Each structure stands twice: as structure tokens, then as C-alpha cells.
Amino acid sequence: MTADAGSAFEVGATAQRSWTVEAEHLAPAHGSGTADVLATPALLAFCEETARSIVDPLLPERQATVGTFLEFRHTAATPPGVRVTVTARLVDVDGQRLRFELTAHDPFEEIGRGTHERFLVDSDRFLTKVSRKAKSDGN
């Protein structure tokens, strides 16, 4: 990791991504409920993907970001076939820590908001550490 790795990132940068709620995004598919509505775990994945889209294109080779914290309030249900849009804004770069604010809407209302943190990592070192865990007994 270079000392100035975070300098490529512009605080205030935003990204917006949209998804149509499909069967694989519903609560029963994630074990998070029985109603056919957008599952919170699916919405959180949308949030992480949107935040990542701000910084990943700017990363040097052999660098990546990993999600380390997500605090999110999912406030409204969205049925299948409805489009959900997530907006992420990079609000702080502190060394290797990147902090984002998130909002999510469907065409009718805000459906959630929260914060997310990602850390810059050296891909090779990170994957080596994970590989050691995978090869160990794990018990």
C-alpha cells in the first residue's frame, strides 16, 4: 500500500446504481423473511456495490477495497418488478479507511439510508492471509 493511496479519491464523489427487484433479491431467497419484498441483505449488497463503484476504478494494480462496516436502516418495503436506486457519496478518506453515506429509493419513497466503510488492502497480502485460513482446520 502506498502512503498516498487515498489521495486518488475525491471526498464528495458520488455514484448511483439501479436494480430491478427480481426473485433472487426477495426476502425468502435470503432467509430474511417470508414476504415477497426486497430483502435487506440484497439491499445491503446493492449499497456495497455502489460504494465500491466510486473507488475501484481508481485503484492501482494489486489493490482492492474490502467492506468492514455497514450501518443501515431499511425503512420501506419494495415489491418485485420495482426499480431501486442506491446513491453513495464518499464523505471521508482517513489513511486506508474510506467512509460513505448511502441512500436508497424506489420510485415512491426513500427506502433506506446509512453509512459504510471500506478499507484499502494489498490484494496479494489479503488473499495470502485468506488462503492460510482456508488451508487450516478452522476449528
Concise summary:
The chain is α+β, with helices and mostly antiparallel strands and 139 residues long.
Tell me what you see in this structure.
The chain has helices at 27-30, 40-55, 123-135, and strands at residues 14-20, 63-74, 83-94, 97-105, 110-122. The protein has a single domain (5-135), classed as Roll (Thiol Ester Dehydrase, Chain A). A five-stranded antiparallel sheet has the order 1-3-4-5-2. The longest helix is centred in the middle third of the chain and has 16 residues, at 40-55. It is an alpha+beta fold. The model has no long low-confidence stretch (mean pLDDT 93). The two termini are 31 Å apart. It contains three helices and five strands.
Regions with little confidence, pLDDT below 50 for 5+ residues: none
Mean pLDDT: 93
The CATH architecture can be named as: Roll
Spatial sequence of strands, sheet with the most strands = 1-3-4-5-2
Helicity level: 10-25%
In the CATH hierarchy, the third-tier topology is known as: Thiol Ester Dehydrase, Chain A
What is the strand tally? 5
Order of helices and strands: EHHEEEEH
Principal-axis shape: globular
Beta-strand percentage? Answer: 35-45%
Determine the CATH superfamily.
Hotdog Thioesterase
Q: How large is the radius of gyration?
A: 17 Å
Supply the number of structural domains.
1
**Tell me about the biggest sheet?**
5 strands, antiparallel
Summarize this structure as a short list of keywords or feature phrases.
alpha+beta; 3 helices; Thiol Ester Dehydrase, Chain A; 139 residues; single chain; five-stranded antiparallel beta sheet; globular
